[in-house]
Amino acid sequence: MSTQLGTLEELPTDYREAMDGARVSPLWPMMRNVLPHGQPNPVTKPAVWSFDKIRPLLLRAGELTPVERAERRVLVLNDPGRGKGAMQVTSSIYVGLQLLLPGEKAPAHKHTPSAARIVVEGEGAFTIVDGEKCAMERGDLILTPGGMWHDHGHGGTGPVIWLDALDLPLFVFLEGSYAEEGELQAPRNRPDASQVEYKQAGLVPSRNGGERPRYPLLRFPWKHTETALRSLAEHAGHGEPVELDYVNPETGDSCLPTLGFAAMMLRRGETARPPRRSSSGVFHAVEGAGRSTVNGESFSWKRGDTFSAPVFAKIEHTADGEAFLIRIHDAPLQQKLGFYEERA
Ligand code: GTQ
Predict the structure, then answer these.
(1) Which of 24, 25, 65, 330 has CA 20 to 30 A from 298's CA?
(2) To which H or E segment does residue 226 belong?
(3) How large is the average pLDDT for residues 295-315?
């Protein structure tokens, strides 16, 4: 291990000025900022976002700003480690809460980042993704992969609120983020693929040598997820994790290229202690209430709330009763880059 590295201050003033003039700087005073020993040193600070606090602000946004003036009426969750206005919750994950009122239409657009929604409240809204009309029911996970057209509509009677998760910070960092606008889409005249082609696990439509669609399943109904978690729980020992990954049913890969999603059931009196992971995470409570400790900080949560965990966080979840969380993470990106790891 290197000894104490040299500082900028110990270098002669004329040398420092000459470096400035040549637009260069010494690595060694900055070395540990970018290459810390043993594990990364995250900027992200864990936090919890209470739905009860955000909901009235969203409803007020509904009065203050018509959807035509917003394109997407969203309140963005700001990582306290990056401060007010930060358009991210962790290094690579953006999360916002979006409101759509009855009769409103959020115009069609497509963009380079990928998105997924988790429906938090309300009935009657839908998202059309490249012609596939996806009903939005509470707890559903709905994908809008990068490059696919999407518009949102609402034929119901009350407000609908959903959580948006995007890999936007990554695309901004890569200077690859942009959008295009288009016309509202005419939906195909059939239910989404979760009700037609991929209704049963293990069965996919015969392609007879034809190509498999890149994004075969765009909507994962919560009803299916909850049933699957309950079946798993019936045969899992106390303390064994009850967790399911959302995958592409044709390949078994993560359902989006950079973002991963997992649904977790916590049983009464159970504490889950996942390994420390190199991925960052955002947890959304679909049902129930509980407490989680992230790096020693305790966060209480209940249905509708969202909390975050930086990379390599030590995490514990305890549910008050039965609870269901969806974890959004960036392990698929890290796996593609070859550095995802878990530590005890
Ligand atoms: O619904 O398409 O929260 O494009 C941010 C960007 C939602 C959306 C967001 C978006 C959307």
Answers:
(1) 330
(2) helix 222-234
(3) 98
Q: Which residue's CA is the nearest one to ligand 1's atom 6?
A: 72
Kind and range of the H or E run holding 282: strand 281-287
Amino acid 80 reads P
The single residue listed with the structure tokens 């009065």 is 63
By percentage, how much of the chain surpasses pLDDT 90? 97
Cα of 164 vs centre of ligand 1, distance in Å, is 7
Mean pLDDT within 217-246: 96
Residues with CB under 6 A from ligand 1: 72, 74, 96, 98, 111, 115, 150, 164, 166
Report which of 39, 42, 24, 29 is spatially closest to residue 2, judged by C-alpha positions: 29
- 158, 132 Cβ separation under 8 angstroms: no
Task: Name the superfamily (CATH) of residues 48-205+217-343.
Answer: Jelly Rolls (2.60.120.10)
The H or E element that residue 95 is part of is strand 94-100
In whole angstroms, give the CA distance from residue 92 to residue 175: 14
- Cα of 321 vs centre of ligand 1, distance in Å, is 33
List the chain domain ranges: 48-205+217-343
CA of 151 to the centre of ligand 1 (A): 10
Task: Give CA–CA dist 139/264, Å, rounded.
Answer: 12
Residue 74 CA, closest ligand 1 atom number: 3
Q: Is the pLDDT of residue 1 over 70?
A: no
Nearest ligand 1 atom to the CA of 76 is 3
